[in-house]
Design goal:
The chain is α/β, with parallel strands linked by helices. The chain is built from 15 helices and 17 strands.
Amino acid sequence: MTYREALAYLDSLEVLGIRPGLDRIRALLARLGDPHLAFPSVLIGGTNGKGSVSAYLVSILREAGIAAGAYTSPHLVRFEERIAVDGQPLGAADVAALTTEVRAAIEAGRGAGEELPTYFEATTALAFLHFKTRRVPIAVLEVGMGGRFDATNVVRPLACAITQVAMDHMQWLGSTLEAIAGQKAGILKPGVPGVIAVQDRAALEVIREEAERVGAPLVLASVCAARPAPLGDRYSDPPAFSLTTPAGGRYDRLAIALRGTHQVGNATLSVLLAEQAGKRGFPSIDRQAIVRGLARADWPGRLELIPGAAAPGTGGPGRTAGDLLLDGAHNPAGCESLAAYLRDYQAGRRIALVFASMKDKPAEAMLAVLAPRADALLVTSLPVARGESPGHLLALARRHHPRAGTAPTIEEALPIAAEAAGPGGLVVVSGSLYLVGEVKKLLAHRAAARSA
């Protein structure tokens, strides 16, 4: 099987959609020799911030001399981004070899009457197999959706985390915050510390009840003392803060790599996870590893500011290109964080918003949050079957921004948005990580053309 054949095979499983449950992944892993039991892991669930917490923790582990595996989703540009060891994504040859092995196990299962796994289940098995083959000392695993019935929830983690719970994926997880919190809390395990972000009271109560039921000790971020550093009432951009943890950790100044004040909470969660890992077999995770790891973490597409990149194909002599801000916010809570950043750190700039979303997302609620922050608003399409049509998005957008416009593709939308933002303005791309990924591809092609 070649690399392209491997990707085509995995893509063929997309037709099965989302089917929560653990029977299929357990059967597949059993045929592969249960690779998920070959390494310790940290399992990170929640609604928003899972990827950021994962990125911080992997960076901390690297600074502690630990070459961790990392499994995250979705990818922005290439499939290989989902699976990495010591910061290095999976190689194309690895994709081909591992998919060949996973496919053989799937076909054997089908011959025995087992259900075909979903795309996410197959890629999760592929990640576990890679980590076993590479003999990673520990793996950081991001839950795909929910938690209780997510394919990642078959591991025996040394610690779990739940980021802030918010409304998302309601058609699968439930229509109330309490129901969604119940699904997220399903990753908690007997005797395994659960590190919990600051939560809405109703969500926290559900998490507490589940923790008590299964016997999981909780470590609450709400009891940490985090303040802007140097002392003041405003965080810098990106933030720097001081932190005191329940375990007695004192950090006078933690400078983090990612923008937005909400990242203080994500970074705090990663520090608490690092402290737990340090107690459970990884003593090289010390204060300096934590400080350096937070400062050197990388997580593209989340409030990623690219100076002077807002006007591909536009402008002329003497024209100053605006900046480009990429943010994969894809639910109302994520859009609230983006809107807060624009209000607090980009005030006074002319902002043009380029927006697209998936059909299963509450696009109008997202637009209601973001539209008031935009001087110009342009909706566009996503190059995936689940992408919402620009026509429908335009009708929704005009309820909140009467002068909203549309462009068929992101490639056509960017120059229009750059013109609307003007010299020194800011073009914001948001609504979907798939949209951000398309922009990353365009930027990469542009850079390649310049260097050719």
